[in-house]
Amino acid sequence: MLLDDVVEAIVSSRFLIAFTGAGVSVESGIPSFRGRNGLWRRFKPEELATPKAFRRNPLLIWEWYRWRMEIVFNAKPNPAHKALARLESMGLLKCVITQNVDGLHRLAGSKCVVELHGSIRRIRCIGCGYRVEIDSPPREVPPKCPLCSSLMRPDVVWFGEPLPEDEWSRALDYACRADTVLVIGTSGVVYPAAYIPYIVKEHGGVVIEVNIGDTMLTPIADYRVRGRAGEVMDEILKKVMEKLKSS
Ligand SMILES: [Zn+2]
After folding, report:
1. Which residues contact 63 (CB under 8 A, 6 or more apart)?
2. Residues 6+ apart with CB under 8 A from 121
3. Known catalytic residue: 203?
4. Same domain, residue pair 85 and 143
5. Which residue, of 57, 112, 133, 156, is most buried by count of CB atoms within 10 Å of its CB?
């Protein structure tokens, strides 16, 4: 059975990492923010999540983020996040590299998390670079920097912006060391993030894909598990625990 082979691959791996995308947070009630939701239907994220849009209309961009922040701050980790945190605490999973900005991996208890696209739970000053964690959306938008009074923005990566250098180099380091990667809930279309599974593959590693359907990464996957991230990962975790108990 496919899942048994996947479990065997996980248990026998030397250096397992996970690479996650929006699909991992769907069961937490976080939409992909592709602009199909009521209020913001008229806009495409490509039009809102850019430095240019922010310069032109910081209030509009902040209203959009405040709405997204409301959703994220009310969301809870689902069984997919929890299974990954558990696999890490068991010593099997070395790190989670995520494209998500919702912070749910950390909230679920994952310790080693590389956030390639930043975090919506943090804001930063466009003037002096001051950063601060937040636990609720700013009451007044756009927020101003307490140090230099410049505008502050969400500390996330926008379209056309480079990835944070230290996060990207950490991700590359983990990808180069990995002999197995769990690719969960990502369509693999956003670069450079999507290079991660290719790097593992090129080093002779095993690629396990968990997704509801085929993606751009399916052709390089050694195992393709179809289903919702939370359901599949919960099942995998249970089987891993059974296997470890019986051996
Ligand atoms: Zn500042």
Report:
1. 141
2. 72, 73, 102, 103, 133, 134, 135
3. no
4. no
5. 156
Pairing mode of beta strands 131-133, 118-125: antiparallel
State the catalytic residue, choosing from 81, 105, 117, 203.
117
Question: Ligand 1 center to residue 131 CA distance, Å?
Answer: 9
CB 11 within 8 A of CB 244: yes
> 77: Cβ–Cβ under 8 A, 6 or more apart, which residues?
28, 85, 104, 105, 107, 108
How far apart are the CA of 157 and the centre of ligand 1, in A?
A: 18
**Separation of 130 CA from ligand 1 center, angstroms?**
5
Please tell me the distance between residue 71's alpha carbon and the centre of ligand 1 in angstroms.
27
Ion ligand 1: residues, CB < 5 A: 125, 127-128, 130, 145, 147-148, 150
Statement to judge: residues 135 and 220 lie in one domain: no
The whole-number pLDDT of residue 129 equals 97
Indicate the DSSP class of residue 113: E
Q: Are residues 124 and 89 in the same domain?
A: no
With beta carbons less than 8 A apart as the criterion, state whether 105 and 39 touch.
no
Instruction: Give yes or no: residues 99 and 187 share one domain.
Output: yes
